[in-house]
Queue: 2 jobs
Job 1
Amino acid sequence: QVQLVESGGGVVQPGRSLRLSCVASGFTFSTYAMNWVRQAPGKGLVWVAVISYDGSNQYYADSVKGRFTISRDNSKNTVHLQVNSPRPEDTAVYYCARGAGTGVYFDYWGQGTPVTVSS
Amino acid sequence: QSALTQPASVSGSPGQSITISCTGTSSDVGSYSLVSWYQQLPGKAPKLMIYEVSKRPSGVSNRFSGSRSGNTASLTISGLQAEDEADYYCCSYAGSSIVLFGGGTKVTVL
């Protein structure tokens, strides 16, 4: 069965860096786009970034463009989110989600990894 | 990149039908048949309920249905059950590989 398992979350000081990872299993990882979606405490879902199946294209929400980098290693069935220069407003649970169909909806989600940006 | 607009809350009695609206613009909901809906139970990850406006993934109850008219998409839950109490989010493609979510709607079963 499809599984997505995130890791790497925790408490990070503003301006420091953090790398989130998501390990996939149960499907042919190299044929699917992968996304990160976040949810601040008590708030709604916000799409963060997407990477194409082969890693050749990445797109970001305006709120993280230039600070976050999404990447993938198809040999390890893993997608990463590099979080640079985090701000308190980046505090959220970060979900990894598989892009399905045309890649613009999310058919499987991980359990999420929490990130708290605080000094 | 503005979020789609959903009502904060909708409620209904068991057995009733409720509809959640999701209003976007002609650049997102109105332009693409790529609206999806997600159910999120407390403390859990979201679950895909509807994709491409009105399609249901395997395993999702046929009590859930989706539609769209102009710039507004809708999710209808018929035969409301206690287990349907959750937060629901709409989502739409907005062009240039950008995806927008709605602010979420809390469904309460009275």
Note: Chain A has no helices and eleven strands.
Job 2
Amino acid sequence: RKEVEQDPGPFNVPEGATVAFNCTYSNSASQSFFWYRQDCRKEPKLLMSVYSSGNEDGRFTAQLNRASQYISLLIRDSKLSDSATYLCVVRWRSGGAGGTSYGKLTFGQGTILTVHP
Amino acid sequence: EADIYQTPRYLVIGTGKKITLECSQTMGHDKMYWYQQDPGMELHLIHYSYGVNSTEKGDLSSESTVSRIRTEHFPLTLESARPSHTSQYLCASSAFGAGSGYEQYFGPGTRLTVT
């Protein structure tokens, strides 16, 4: 089983639509959660961190459910420029005594979103 | 924009050649990483470093090696390139500690093709 699993899509939606992506992770010791965005043939860039209470950044809303080990990203009022691959990313405690975290991230395969006119 | 650079951006090379992929960052980040990504697939961590003279192998086994002699520089070397090494190689860096949010900044990548 993969450590971070996402529905690869692709999701094809019209402009203005609302779309939601889900992600599950297998390690209950996971500490931090993120959504990255990767445009075609480009490097990944941080879209937003995901906090336990849920958080919103403009048209983007992220939710975390630790009990179900599940993360979601909601995009409202989709724009053509939202077309990209969305990567679910997890960091968990690792390393020596005391569980020192070294910031290693595990990336999901990504969900492809295409927004059309 | 992140100040992390990779050269070359594209490399086509024959089997058996030795290659070095360069990665430099000017943000003073302690931690640096190398990922490998095939088209349509997830990123796999192949090497990381917590600071000068510190290097570790990542989650995906790789025949490449790395060095970290200076904070800003984290080159990756393949002693003898093979077609199976064809992939995109992404370098990243992050600051140390929870205050940084653990965000990793990525370079533009090197797209390697071994013929």
Note: The interface with chain A takes residues 31, 33, 35, 41-43, 45, 48, 50, 58-59, 90, 94, 96, 98, 101-104, 106-109 of chain B (CB under 8 Å).
